[in-house]
Amino acid sequence: MSSHSEAPAVPVEAYEPPYYMAVFTTLRTQDQSGYSETDARLEDLVKGIPGYLGTDHAQTPGGLGITVSYFRDADALTKWRADVEHRAAQQRGRAEWYQSYTLHVAKVERSSGFTRAQVPQGPTAD
């Protein structure tokens, strides 16, 4: 899922472990007909999976796409993996949209985060 370019750049928060992550790394083909619509649909679908925590996405200038989706437990990840529309999109991806991809699934055992505090901006004195 990669329609995140319009969204503000905010990473998924660090959750209390354990939880699961699926790391999907792609190189796309030239023909991306229907990709954006399917991606938007899948993004809506995954949000309906109980236990879905969020998704981070990045795209390099060279074309490498990295999508990391987070799930509270293995059952939530399994439900997403078995979703009929998701399975159909996977088949279409192999047939049309991806030159290559890798998928890594991992159990997160440690998680932390940091957010810089906002400094209040007041009127400047002359």
UniProtKB/TrEMBL annotation:
> Entry's InterPro entries?
Dimeric_a/b-barrel, Jasmonate_Hydroxylase-like
Source taxon at top rank:
Bacteria
**What's an example of a GO molecular-function annotation for this chain?**
monooxygenase activity
- For this UniProt record, give its keywords in alphabetical order, as a comma-separated list: Monooxygenase, Oxidoreductase
Task: List, alphabetically, the SUPFAM superfamilies matched.
Answer: Dimeric alpha+beta barrel
Write down the top EC class of this protein.
Answer: oxidoreductase
Q: Where is the signal peptide?
A: none
Q: What is its EC number?
A: 1.14.-.-
Q: Record's PANTHER family?
A: ABM DOMAIN-CONTAINING PROTEIN (PTHR37811:SF2), BLL5343 PROTEIN (PTHR37811)
UniProt protein name:
Antibiotic biosynthesis monooxygenase
| Organism of this sequence | Streptomyces fuscus
